[in-house]
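Readers of this paper often ask what the protein records in our data store actually look like. Such a record has a labelled line for the sequence and another for the backbone structure tokens. Nothing more is needed to write down the fold, since each code stands for a local backbone conformation. The remainder of this section carries one protein's record, kept here as part of the documentation.
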Amino acid sequence: MAQIVSFGEVLMRLSTPGFSRFEQARQLNVTYAGGEANVSSALAYWGHHTAHVTRFPDSPIGRAAAQYLHFHGVDISHIIYGGPRMAVYFLEMGAALRGSQIVYDRANSSLAEIDPKEINWDEILKDAKWFHWAGITPALSQGAADALLEGIKTARKYGLTVSGDIFYRANLWKYGKKPSDILPELTAGTDIVIANKENISEIFGIGGNDFVESSVNLQKAFPQISKIIDTKRTSISASHNLLRALMWNGKELLETADIEINPIIDRVGGGDAFIAGLIHGLISFNGDDQKALEFGVAASALKHTIEGDALISTIAEVEAIRQGETSGRIKR
């Protein structure tokens, strides 16, 4: 059985070749991606047994998406099939002064139309150690939100660590509910939360003068939470960023140094790579939160150099960046 289980929508990614604009493109490159699945695939490359739970159309496209996850080492045995269509997003990669553009087409997708009873969470989670979710999935439909809530409750029953990335896409919430209606109950069952001061205020109505005060107040409202983590990006241009991270672990504020990323090849999935690196560190580094945070930032920085949403890397490559090896020297 999988040690680490994620749940969320996987989309077909259609991207313009190189840095061409939508108006220029006469063909599109196809791959598959989803925030939670990206976390599982990165962890699989580092030797963790991961599984992703989602719903695909029972079609060649759905099976192609499942095989993509399988190719990256993710257990696909808990994927269910049904529903009308694959969610899609279109990507135009930015460069220098021009930012990237993403256009979503995910209404009425297979996962959005899920019946929570289709998932046997007891069977999936009874022998697992970790469950990961993100705030985009419950934005899709009440069924997706209910399925996720049931997964979190089951994870709690079996004593799993639960991590949640509560960042969300405001324009996806079209079924009559707001993030503040849904995300608090999901967060109540979550141990490790990725959030910033602003969305803590927006979602929970919890204020604070800075990240630490907001985190302390969030922990008071949700005692289950042990750590709150945020990343900070300085965008010099679309091709040149600085990246660092912060963690409030209930006792102290931890912070990493900036990592400079220049040039950026593909920043999509960088946040998911950070979460994967953080989870790996928290599992592997014997309680060293600082080292886990640094590993997460290093993993995210490395992802920015790789095309596609998935971080394809070894632990050694990420660790070298964590220790400051960013010269990019050729390996022979």
